[in-house]
UniProtKB/TrEMBL annotation:
Annotated family: Belongs to the LOB domain-containing protein family.
Cellular-component GO terms for this entry: nucleus
A Pfam family annotated for this UniProt entry: LOB
Identification of the protein by name: LOB domain-containing protein
InterPro entries for the chain: LOB (IPR004883)
Length: 104
């Protein structure tokens, strides 16, 4: 976690983006704090919450090794944004578009 001795999970005295979005206190050891900063984290977490739900993402992150959580958070955020843009295919539509570019 970032910052030691702080009462908030984000280590800077303000809640992480996820806790700010969920309107709850960000506690020491918050699973979201290292991956959803105070500034941009709210926007990213809003999409994640809408698509996957906070509880599901929390469970997923806690079951992963700490070394894999940052990459998982970025991937989940990307997929959530893609699902909001294209609810049927999500990020697969980007893959199809790139495959077509390669073919041409």
């Amino acid at each position: 976690m970032t910052g030691s001795g702080s009462s908030s999970g984000s280590g800077c005295g303000s809640p992480c983006g996820a806790c700010k979005f969920l309107r709850r206190k960000c506690v020491q050891g918050c699973v979201f704090a290292p991956y959803f900063c105070h500034e941009q984290g709210v926007t990213h977490f809003a999409a994640i919450h809408k698509v996957f739900g906070a509880s599901n993402v929390s469970k997923l992150l806690t079951h992963l090794p700490v070394s894999d959580r940052a990459e998982a958070a970025v991937t989940i955020s990307y997929e959530a944004q893609a699902r909001l843009h294209d609810p049927i295919y999500g990020c697969v539509s980007h893959i199809f578009a790139l495959q077509q570019q390669v073919q041409f």
